[in-house]
Design goal:
The chain is an alpha/beta fold. It contains twelve helices and 16 strands.
Length: about 425
């Protein structure tokens, strides 16, 4: 078996960040959110120790701003110390939220156990195991909140330059790059193209900045964003965590997503067309919360729920205070979920007699009824109209035409209902 290396790739911890846009938060939930970011980082360290990784990567934005509290900074240093005690090094770069100018003000720089790459030029490190070089790492930090636009953040980070740092004749089999970049997605944050990174010849690029986890190629990933480890607002939905990366000689890189967040945000849409009462609506909404929570692997969840469907409860839902009262009852049902907002996007059921009294729908319905009373009349009518537009109806039975006509009628009525609501 060839050599292998396994490491945790994390980014965008945003320790000290406020959770934005959540309304009427209770003291219990305020405490949960206040601790969520450092707890996620604690879980990252727990995972590194449990999985016995070789090292950990932090690809920028460990802190949200210069306003991180003393307690947050101490928790961060304590977590690094736990890794240092087990001889698990941490390699990192500073991002746009926590440039090196802030690190130098807030820490005895650098903190013990963290190798932070410089800003003026690429920095390099060699990870050794059992006295032999196993992985060459290179990276570059933000010195201030804006990376110089006339420089590429990946410039000088190639397999050749990384291996040139090795002393001795034995070269490490693996090379990893670490940068904080918007890639070619966010051109305002140290942009670099995937092609440029691939041409560098590294085995894996550990990136930060984008808050949604993805890799460039599921089968053979060489560029990865782990996303943030804890969402900061209700727009950052879904599981949050880190990448467990395995590099093995002769094999494609393997990337496993590890959920870390204690609080996850979701925005489920719930069809309540079959509900007969407001109590049933609350039951269905709670089931939808559990369904959304399943893949997130988290303790707590904050939601915004949109109610949809044609329901006789529509008029009741539009009355002042009804949705707010339902939201509070929903939150009382299960204390680990918090519904921040309950939105009504339902419609009244279609009542053909009232819809067809006047105007456009009268004409549509009358034409369909008249043509349908004649054998093959509806098909012949549609065929004639479509041929006038140089469109062929093709082979279609009268029964099938009638079904499609009814669906079209329903669709038109739905559109008219939406315009009125």
């Amino acid at each position: 078996m060839g050599a292998s290396v396994r490491f945790l790739h994390s980014a965008d911890l945003h320790i000290g960040a406020p959770v934005r846009g959540v309304s009427e938060i209770t003291p219990v939930w305020e405490k949960r959110l206040d601790q969520a970011f450092v707890e996620a980082f604690d879980r990252l360290v727990d995972t590194a120790l449990r999985r016995e990784v070789d090292f950990v990567i932090l690809a920028g934005d460990c802190f949200d701003t210069a306003g991180a509290s003393f307690e947050d900074r101490e928790r961060f240093k304590e977590a690094l110390a736990r890794l240092h005690e087990k001889d698990i090094p941490v390699y990192g770069c500073a991002g746009n939220h926590d440039p090196l100018s802030i690190w130098r003000k807030q820490f005895a720089y650098p903190p013990e156990g963290l190798v932070m790459f410089p800003e003026e030029a690429p920095g390099f490190a060699i990870y050794e195991k059992e006295g032999r070089p196993l992985c060459a790492l290179g990276g570059r930090s933000y010195g201030h909140k804006v990376f110089p636009q006339n420089h590429s953040v990946a410039e000088g980070l190639t397999r050749e330059t990384l291996l040139a740092q090795v002393e001795g004749e034995e070269l490490p089999p693996f090379c990893v790059g670490i940068i904080h970049s918007g890639l070619d997605i966010d051109l305002a944050k140290a942009p670099v193209t995937p092609a440029e990174l691939k041409e560098a010849g590294l085995d894996y690029w550990a990136l930060g900045h984008l808050h949604k986890a993805f890799v460039d190629d599921e089968a053979a990933p060489t560029i990865g964003f782990p996303g943030c480890i804890q969402g900061r607002d209700l727009a950052e939905t879904g599981p949050k965590g880190a990448h467990l990366v395995t590099l093995e000689e002769g094999c494609d890189p393997k990337v496993e997503f590890i959920p870390l967040a204690s609080v996850v945000f979701e925005q489920p849409t719930v069809d309540i067309s079959l509900c007969e009462s407001l109590s049933e609506v609350i039951d269905v909404a709670l089931r939808a919360e559990f369904t959304s929570n399943g893949p997130d692997h988290c303790e707590y969840m904050i939601t915004r729920i949109t109610l949809t469907g044609k329901t006789k409860l529509h008029d009741l839902l539009t009355k002042p205070g009804v949705l707010e009262e339902m939201r509070r009852e929903l939150n009382d049902r299960y204390g680990d979920f918090f519904c921040d907002a309950l939105w009504d996007r339902t419609m009244n059921p279609r009542e053909a007699s009232s819809e067809l009294e006047t105007g456009f729908m009268t004409s549509v319905h009358a034409t369909a009824t008249r043509m349908g009373a004649v054998p093959n009349g509806l098909t012949d009518y549609l065929q004639d109209k479509l041929l006038q537009k140089d469109v062929s109806l093709g082979h279609l039975s009268e029964a099938r035409t009638r079904v499609l006509s009814e669906r079209a009628l329903d669709y038109i009525q739905d559109l008219m209902q939406e315009e009125r609501s």
